[in-house]
Amino acid sequence: MRGSRPAAGFTLVEVLIALAITAFIAAIAYRSLSTALQAVESTRAIAQRSYEVNRAWMIISRDLRQFVPRPVRDEFGQVEPAVVGGTAARFPLGFTRTGWHNPNDRERSNLQRVNYRVEDGALWRDAYPVLDRAPDTVPQQARLLEGVEVLEVVFLGTLSDAQRTGQGIELDTRNWQGNWVSDTSAPDSELPPPAALEFRLQLEDLGEMRRVYALPPL
């Protein structure tokens, strides 16, 4: 009778080596997958943030492109110039714009008064349903952008501080003013709109961003 041969198989050492190799490959694969997922999430967050910032600038630009020189009365009965803003004003920037769409065909003006301000780390846009407000007039408040530390607006005089060229207006940026408010010593004098303004935002993650806007000529 022939001697029986031992059954073929793996030794304990070979099994342990195979398990170690498998674990090593799995660890590398997990690390690579984790890195890829983090990169995807980071890219998604950056894209979302870029969209939010660009959307805020688009709204600001749209409002300022449709500026009209129409003063209003505030809820206290005081006249607000067509443009007002700066550190000495109630809001960093307030102005009147046209192009307020009326899809429901309501009996109202196509002009709208808007204010921009920063509160609770966010940029807000306030829009009023009427131009000349009553004490109980409530604005529609829209949170445009999160992560905003500072909003600063500076102003460039009147058109005498700007030079018209064939391509538009060439701005003389040496005479920016930190405030555009009425002269309290001459309450009946009308404050003309500035030639241009610079809108500055300090963001928590992106730092300072600036845009210069030449207001439509009167």
Helical percent range? 10-25%
Provide the residue-averaged pLDDT.
Answer: 85
| Percentage of β-strand residues | 25-35%
Largest sheet: 6 strands, antiparallel
Structural class: alpha+beta
Low-confidence stretches: none
Task: Give a count of the beta strands, DSSP E runs of length 2 or more.
Answer: 13
CATH C-level class is: Alpha Beta
Key features of this structure:
218 residues; alpha+beta; Pili subunits; 6-stranded antiparallel sheet
Write structural notes for this entry:
The protein is of the alpha+beta class and about 220 residues long. The protein has one helix spanning about 10-65; strands at about 70-75, 80, 85, 95, 110-120, 120-125, 140-145, 150-155, 160-165, 170, 180, 195-205, 205-215. The chain has a six-stranded antiparallel β-sheet, with helices on one face. β12 (about 195-205) and β13 form a beta hairpin. The termini are far apart.
Q: Topology, pairings included?
A:
Elements: H1 12-65, E1 72-73, E2 79-80, E3 83-86, E4 93-97, E5 112-119, E6 122-127, E7 140-146, E8 148-156, E9 162-165, E10 168-171, E11 179-180, E12 196-203, E13 207-214
Antiparallel strand pairs: 1-2, 3-4, 3-11, 4-5, 5-6, 6-7, 8-12, 9-10, 12-13
How would you briefly describe this protein structure?
The protein is α+β, with helices and mostly antiparallel strands. The protein has one domain (57-214): GSPII I/J protein-like (Pili subunits, Roll), CATH 3.10.610.
